[in-house]
Amino acid sequence: MVQNLTAQQLDRRSLLRGAVAAGLAVAEVPFLHTRPALAQFKDNPFTLGVAAGEPAPDGFVIWTRLAPRPLLGRGGMAPVPIEVKWELANDPAMQQVVRDGKTTAWPELAHSVHVELGALEPARDYFYRFRAGGAESPVGRARTLPAPGATVAQFRFASAGCQGWEGGFFTAWRSIAEEAFDLVVHYGDYIYENRHVTVDRQGRPFPRTLPSDFPLCLNLIDYRRRYALYKSDPDLQAAHASCAFLASFDDHEVVDNWAADSDRRNTPPEAFLFRRAAAFQAWYEHMPVRNSMLPHGPNLLAYRLLRIGNLADLAVLDTRQYRSRQPCGDGFHSQCVEADEPNRTMLGGQQERWLAEGLRAQQGTWQVLAQQVLFSRFDWRSFPWLKAPDVEIRRMDTWDGASAGRDRVLKILQDVQARNPVVLTGDLHMGMAIEIKDDWNEPNSRCAGVEFLATSISSSGDGSPTVSNADALHRHNPHLKFIDNERGYTRHVVTPKTWRADYRVVEKVSVPGAATSTRKSFVVEAGRPGLADA
Ligand code: FE
Ligand code: CA
User: Fold this and answer.
1) How many Cα atoms occupy the beta-carbon half-sphere of 339 within 13 Å?
2) Cα of 455 to ligand 2 centre, how many Å?
3) What gap in Å lies between CA 423 and CA 426, rounded to an integer?
């Protein structure tokens, strides 16, 4: 059945139950009579495109937001509810409509709508669009997941994230759109919270800049305008219209390197949590996620598990909300005893238990952890900009800052006899392929799984295929099989026998429309963890 409830409707429903329980006639609940306005728009309200997300075997979420003037605080909308119609069809021309309905865009949620569609057929394409007033949205495509337990010949998806506006053009999103993937896994940094700046740290002008009145994001209006700007990008809109996304967030959806209730400038937790609440509300308003992911104040339940037939179990993790604060004051450290303290965590106890339970009931050949920051142990010495003595250096914002938390996740994978663990990561603005080792100090120890880091869509600007001191990096990290400093995304082609990862790179992002190509490909054979050149 179609679930199509906004928060307020949910509230009304429970209120209605309350009213019935209290013996009141339904008609006496006064605001049940309010009707959303049937607006007429002078300007196109669908400036932010459409999106789908959270695919299941029987449905997905479809999203849009009405914003005729997207960069204004209220998107150019009057503060009244608006009726939005939606249609679902078999074909991109929307000739064979299989389902339609109405929902309400509430001003409290920036006139965004999240329609949860159910009772659809597994493993097939659907197309959708919205109407409001006299206006019609673009058409989006989404594909349902394979049926539970079904044998899946192939599943194709992208992992991507880190789309800094100033870094350059979203050509990688255009390329993703052309692939018509089954799914996009977004690892976070969908927006960056920084104020308007025109030049990078070296004083070079950015390829594009925020409008000059864009401040550091602190409150709800700041974050809303930021999402509106990013989502105004035609390449990003094309990617969203091309397939369903699985959205997660990392740090920049709130602020650089936040951790639980803390940020880097020692804001009191009670103050910081107001910022986190505003950031999460804006995130929810702009992502195609389920109503169950509505934030409650500063809290948002973002970890979840998808089963892709009998091919893969895919857990989306939240490595920000429940983590221990970065040890030793964050940054890079050669000696930080705190990082290895046994009580430290990236997921928190509850999420760790949830993960163990979810993986114990695994159905797939591949066990996928879709998450945000570098999972594998990594020695950063010899990165030129560190200028450090020749000793091991670890980065405190990654799982190296909570090694006991990583050990517990590896123990879970072992305990549940996960056959083929694959960790998906982003954050570093570099592509990497890594073998996860039973004993990080012993290059010949068993390979417990693989980690694929997707590079950034645009953050850090034009890159280069070579990383300086790459030889030394490989020497100090024998489990590192590939590192690349270009912009792009990772394409994953998964079958019951093999997992293929293609590192897709954009020639440059400082100009629009540059060429995309494959820099490197790896194959993992099911049952034989380890990376082989494709
Ligand atoms: Fe980033
Ligand atoms: Ca970061």
Assistant:
1) 22
2) 13
3) 10
CA 8 / ligand 2 centre spacing (Å): 34
Residue 304 Cα to ligand 1 middle (Å): 22
CA–centroid distance, 188 to ligand 2, in Å, is: 10
Q: Nearest-5° angle of CA 4, CA 9, CA 12?
A: 145
Q: Is the dihedral of CA 329, 335, 336, 340 positive or negative?
A: positive
Pair of tokens at residue 330: 């964050």
Instruction: Give every CB contact of residue 43 below 8 A, 6+ residues apart in sequence.
Output: 68, 69, 76
Instruction: Using the mean position of ligand 2's atoms as its centre, give its distance from the Cα of residue 153 in Å.
Output: 36
pLDDT in tens, 264-279: 999 999 999 999 999 9
**Centroid of ligand 2 to alpha carbon of 160 (angstroms):** 15
Q: What pLDDT is attached to residue 458?
A: 98
Q: How far is the CA of 233 from the centre of ligand 1 (A)?
A: 18
Residue 316: the pLDDT is: 98
Sorted by sequence, the CB contacts under 8 Å of residue 50 that are 6+ apart come out as: 62, 63, 64, 128, 129, 130, 137, 138, 139, 140, 237, 240, 241
Locate 456 and state its tokens: 């950034």
Using alpha carbons, list the distances in angstroms from residue 282 to 226, 277, 278, 470.
9, 9, 6, 40
Per the prediction, the chain carries an average pLDDT of 93
- Among 158, 163, 254, CA closest to 460: 163
Strand-pair category, 155-160 with 183-186:
parallel
Tens digits of residue pLDDT in 103-135: 999 999 999 999 999 999 999 999 999 999 999
DSSP annotation of 31:
G
Output the CA 430–ligand 2 centroid distance in Å.
Answer: 13
Structure tokens at 517: 């190509």
Task: Please say whether the beta carbons of 396 and 330 come within 8 A.
Answer: yes
